[in-house]
Design a protein that fits this description.
Elements (H helix, E strand, L loop, with lengths): L9 H5 L13 H16 L28 E3 L17 E3 H16 L3 E8 L7 E8 L2 E11 L2 E2 L3 E2 L8 H4 L1 E2 L5 H7 L3 H9 L9 E8 L7 E7 L8 E5 L5 E5 L1
Antiparallel strand pairs: 1-2, 3-4, 3-8, 3-9, 4-5, 5-6, 5-7, 9-10, 10-11, 11-12
Helix pairs in contact: 3-5
Length: about 250
């Protein structure tokens, strides 16, 4: 079944409570991990790199205010990894719509999917793009990756695994997430991060990307981390969402 294009308004209500579920083991290690990722993002190349299979910790690079409003992205056009700079003025598409379009495309192409990691980027002034790493049904120890860009799902490519990768322990059902509720929650992430830091994020471009993966060891089950650009503060933050769209934690 294709995901409905409109978002459930009731999902916005869920976001009001910051902590409804309790993380498995949240503490300084999670915040240190976030800070380290922020430093890496600021010094990385603007070319889109190969994404790792495991749960990501990416933090948005500092970017100038662009032509798209915070929480939005734009069609059409290619793009680079977050941190890209552009002055092109194009029609914008809200990040929630881009997320639902990516999910709809992956589910249409792959059907029932045991995912390892989903990443969706919402760059300023250019088109959104996404990648999905998933377990092969006939080879449970193998993982493939497919990219979504310009509204199309590309060909599958194998993901290199290490001997320590336990695929079975990290997979989750793509259909187990209420993507309409998650999409409705995405635009609220900027406000939650600003509340956490105690003030507005001057110059922030808003939500830059999200990563859905198994939450271990910091959370039980699947977690969707929605990342917010820090603007002049440089280091932004993220909101960890549960599969029902509710906020489990805000890190900033």
């Amino acid at each position: 079944m294709r995901i409905r294009s409109h978002l459930r308004t009731t999902a916005l209500v869920v976001l009001g409570a910051l902590v409804i579920g309790t993380p498995a083991a949240c503490g300084d290690s999670e915040e240190d991990r976030f800070s380290a990722a922020a430093d890496k993002a600021r010094t990385s190349s603007t070319a889109a790199p190969e994404r790792p299979v495991g749960p990501g910790t990416g933090e948005p690079s500092d970017r100038p205010a662009g032509t798209a409003r915070p929480g939005s992205t734009a069609f059409p056009g290619d793009t680079a990894f977050p941190g890209d700079r552009t002055s092109t003025t194009v029609a914008t598409v809200p990040a929630p719509d881009a997320l639902l379009a990516a999910i709809d495309a992956f589910r249409t192409e792959l059907g029932t999917t045991k995912a390892v990691e989903l990443t969706v980027h919402f760059p300023v002034g250019s088109g959104p793009y996404a990648s999905l790493s998933y377990q092969l049904p006939d080879r449970p120890t193998a993982v493939d990756r497919r990219d979504w860009r310009d509204g199309r799902v590309g060909e599958a490519s194998p993901v290199k695994l290490t001997g320590s990768d336990d695929v079975a322990a990290r997979v989750w059902d793509l259909g187990s997430v209420d993507w309409n509720a998650v999409a409705a929650a995405v635009p609220q992430a900027t406000g939650l991060v600003e509340a956490q830091v105690g003030g507005p994020l001057e110059g922030s471009t808003g939500v830059t990307h999200l990563i859905a993966a198994d939450g271990a060891p910091f959370f039980d089950g699947t977690v969707i981390r929605v990342y917010v650009d820090g603007g002049t503060r440089r280091t932004g933050g993220y909101v960890a969402l549960r599969p029902d769209g509710g906020a489990a934690r805000v890190v900033a």
